[in-house]
Design a protein that fits this description.
By secondary structure, the chain is an all-beta fold. Helices cover 0% and strands 44% of the residues. The protein contains no helices and 9 strands. This is Non-heme iron oxygenase ferredoxin subunit.
């Protein structure tokens, strides 16, 4: 599978997660305050809730339900109660398009 258009870059608000579906997978897309676009699995590994409803702080996304924070770069949880990582997808920018391949995760 190749990269699919997930959203427009202009749709992203700084430090505000956007939930999209790519290849049938829920993904949280985040434009961080440094201008980098991240794409991580949108489902918290602790509580099976949407991470895109959470809070961005630097390069972390905190689950709104139980407070686990996940690294936007590695997908690893930074605190309990989550202890399993979420996938982090490779992001490509083509003009105003944010492209994600849901079969291709970052090596961390």
């Amino acid at each position: 599978m190749s990269a699919e258009r997930a959203c427009a870059l202009s749709e992203l608000e700084t430090d505000t997660p956007l939930r999209v579906e790519v290849g049938g997978k829920p993904v949280a897309v985040v434009l961080d305050s440094a201008g980098e676009v991240h794409a991580i699995g949108d489902t918290c590994t602790h509580g099976d809730v949407s991470l895109s409803e959470g809070f961005v702080d630097g390069d972390t996304l905190e689950c709104w339900a139980h407070g686990s924070a996940f690294s936007l770069r590695t997908g690893h949880p930074l605190n309990l109660p989550a202890f399993e990582p979420v996938p982090v997808y490779v992001v490509e920018i083509d003009g105003d398009d944010v492209l994600i391949d849901p079969t291709r995760t970052k090596e961390v």
